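G., before I forget:
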Amino acid sequence: MLSLDYANCLADRVGAHGLDPAILAPGGDVATAMAAHTQRLASTRGTNWERWRDLPFDPVRTAHLTAVRDIASRCRGRFDNLIVLGIGGSALGNIALHNALNPATHNLLPDGVRTGPRLFVVDNVDPVAFDNVIEYCESAGGGLHRTLFNVISKSGETAETAAQFMIVRERLRALLGAGHAEQVVAITDPARGTMRQICEREGYPTLPVPDGVGGRFSVLSPVGLFSACMCGIDIEALLTGAAEMDAVCSRPQVERNPAAMLALLLVELGQTKGKTNHVLMPYASNLYSMADWYRQLWAESLGKAKDLAGNTAYTGFTPIKALGATDQHSQVQLYREGPNDKVIGMIEVEKFDTDVPIPTGLGVEALRYLEGRSLGELLSAEKRATEYAFVESMRPNYTIRFPVADAYHIGQFISLWQIATAYAGLLLNIDAYDQPAVELGKQATFGLMGRAGYEKFKNTVDQTLRPTERIING
Amino acid sequence: MLSLDYANCLADRVGAHGLDPAILAPGGDVATAMAAHTQRLASTRGTNWERWRDLPFDPVRTAHLTAVRDIASRCRGRFDNLIVLGIGGSALGNIALHNALNPATHNLLPDGVRTGPRLFVVDNVDPVAFDNVIEYCESAGGGLHRTLFNVISKSGETAETAAQFMIVRERLRALLGAGHAEQVVAITDPARGTMRQICEREGYPTLPVPDGVGGRFSVLSPVGLFSACMCGIDIEALLTGAAEMDAVCSRPQVERNPAAMLALLLVELGQTKGKTNHVLMPYASNLYSMADWYRQLWAESLGKAKDLAGNTAYTGFTPIKALGATDQHSQVQLYREGPNDKVIGMIEVEKFDTDVPIPTGLGVEALRYLEGRSLGELLSAEKRATEYAFVESMRPNYTIRFPVADAYHIGQFISLWQIATAYAGLLLNIDAYDQPAVELGKQATFGLMGRAGYEKFKNTVDQTLRPTERIING
């Protein structure tokens, strides 16, 4: 199991910048309140927008595993490239699983060595980046007829994904006519919406974005599982890890429940100690994208202008991704000497899949201490040294420890943060499942793109952003 | 030229969260103070740690271009892979230039289509990631004898780079004996230090890390230019762009000097309006790594515990990278409804190298507005819509506009931020060129790794981080 070490968030380690350990005492007010939140979460799990908690458990689990594996097995061997078209919660989990569990060189490896097709998650509408990927697949990558497109959109109306899909569909149709349906797997609403209509008309195989599972809580649904399965990831182990972490995170005692403790620490340090920036800094390159996934979960769930009573709140914390040891040479100067406004979450892997020995024999005195050691030992020492340096400058921090970074423990990590987010929503008394502030930008985009019914937004945008002289040209 | 549009940082756009435009009036106190800072920077340029300002100008410019091209031309055609061994300022600029100016699929492209060798910048000591890259080059990538290693370390004593280098040197020696020197290009101190000694002993060709150029200000020196040149980037255009931006950023009038204005806005909004988080959000996938380069520059230069008078300061701002439109689906909810503690810097590209039309004919009413438009138009509309949404929720923001994202304008961007950082150092009255807080972690790492003379650090670390019961296991 993962462990959570939070000693460095407490006042006996980081003085006034940490929490008083006494508030955590069993039987105290905080422990009692957290136990009540745990009870509340037990009562709401599997209802409304908390149906993501069902994903690792039967019957949903088996239904999804079966459906995903069925389509994946029909696709296996037929494709050199898999292009995921999705954005936000329909992309970040896919990227995170792939980067965590496949080698950084995956796309470079030859057929037969690589586990599954090359994977490209195209989560932007940048025309250059999009063209690069399509152009590669069309020419050097084996051709579009060897490319599978996995379009992910619950409604089908997300502008970015829809635009990508429209381009891809046209190119596939030009090449393959009606047979192009063999090159598309859609993950969308099982019953309604624009993408569902299109799928039925065109005969695309589909997998569900389940009801009651929001985008940022969907990685353990087919949204994340299909591309992972195609690229050789053990999706069953992911779900098993998630299920076991769910059990641990259902314990009533906050001091034995890592999700409750994580939420409590981060919310308390944020609200009472001004630590409103929450860094997640894996000491493992392949876990860096997990920090990107966390970034959406933590930002979009907790950044809210109103609380549940309708009061003005402006809650939330700014999640920041960093990478150890790399960012010691970029961010640690600030983290130690800048404003003390952060909690730094470090991630440590106890045993790497492989280690690389540092040879003897260079014969340079200043580097002798490295001889006979290994990169893994050096990385671990750097993590510990940096943790010490944070404590020394009174910067609260915690460590999430992975015994190994495999699918089982990645599943645990996902479950841990999702449940911690649910706790944080209760602690902040906000709706952790909506995202009202993204609507205005969408409507304004519609207006600027000339969508019927949104004309007024174009006028408002043009009026608000009318040209001024506050511009410096060369 | 790049332009800087800062209208949305002012109170007439974002109310009390913006600066009073009156403070910017020509002849006022602020304008006068900024003119004095400009004069000060003119007097210190090219001295001490401000020798980076000489890099785009002769004689340094021609000397570097000649030396870099000379070694690059000797290497051209001999290598399938180029592996940069460096960290922090010896890696971030290389990554940023490459990602900005070569396609995301560069490493996948076949010989002859790709401009130069595949590029891997290995800026961590993660054993799995390191092994993936070396293993790929040894087997599928054409073999180590077709792999050039570019080791970058001023002193040669940076633990991460030294460890990587020791491993690589041993593997090359096993394969090629003394001839392995042909596979290494070192960028290091021109006169002294551990790496310099090694280079002389082994006969490696070298390029200089010039005196008075700190790591985070070194991208326009051979540190950044060599790998860029190898991979087909127009390094002369980079320097030309930087030189022209330097001239613009030497103008005494703050309202005509984008570096002075950028520093003024960010420092003032940070210090007087609580906007201590400084987001940089390119609306262009290939510029995302430029935000990572900026992240080191802004964090490490300005995050200081003491000011120049020795007073406790805890200055600095937290630079955050984000990507448009992608992060609209991840961070914008927080940026609009969370604590109003950010300035959001948007980057816009007016003309993309290529655009991708969105075809007509899908026949779905809800998506009709996208038909006949293009990805570039959609991305521009999203940027403008999001800018509007930020203003609507009183979030200060500015836009840096690229006419096109080519080497010339990337050079301008680098120069703009480097000079802005120098101004910010003056405004904060701190030393923008040191990084004292990273020393403790380095020393503690030496202690934990058993380096002679650092034993006491191991004891201190072990004592500080002694095990507690504040740990939750599964």
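The first helix of chain A runs from residue 11 to 14. The radius of gyration of chain A is 24 Å.

More on Monday.
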